[in-house]
Amino acid sequence: MNIKVKFCPCNFEDELETTKEKLRVREDLEVIEERCLLYCGQCLMEPFAIVNGKNVVTDHPDKLYEKIDQCVTELKLGVVYQ
After folding, report:
1. Crossing angle between the packed helical segments 64-77 and 17-24, to the nearest 10 degrees
2. Distance from C-alpha of 56 to C-alpha of 49, rounded to nearest angstrom
3. Predicted structure pTM score
4. For the chain, where are the alpha helices, taking DSSP H only?
5. C-alpha–C-alpha distance, residues 5 and 28, integer Å
6. Cα atoms in the Cβ-side hemisphere of radius 13 Å centred on 80
7. What is the pLDDT of residues 64-79, one digit of tens each?
8. How far apart (Å, rounded) are the C-alpha atoms in residues 37 and 25?
9. How many Cβ atoms are within 10 Å of 78's Cβ, its own excluded?
């Protein structure tokens, strides 16, 4: 299963670089930087990523990797988001 993790390059650019690097080395993920993810304004307010279409948000950049990892685990287990 190839899971796509999309980031807006304007979203906490420096703070999320470590998170992006940790995700890039994982073989089960494809990390994509896309200029507009259609979550206008969110990039300036809170760290987030789109994981297979699901908006994963945290209140601090350091927490985003854990939330993405949890979401990936749930996707692999077949958890369906509504």
Report:
1. 30
2. 5
3. 0.88
4. 17-24, 42-45, 64-77
5. 10
6. 1
7. 999 999 999 999 998 7
8. 23
9. 6
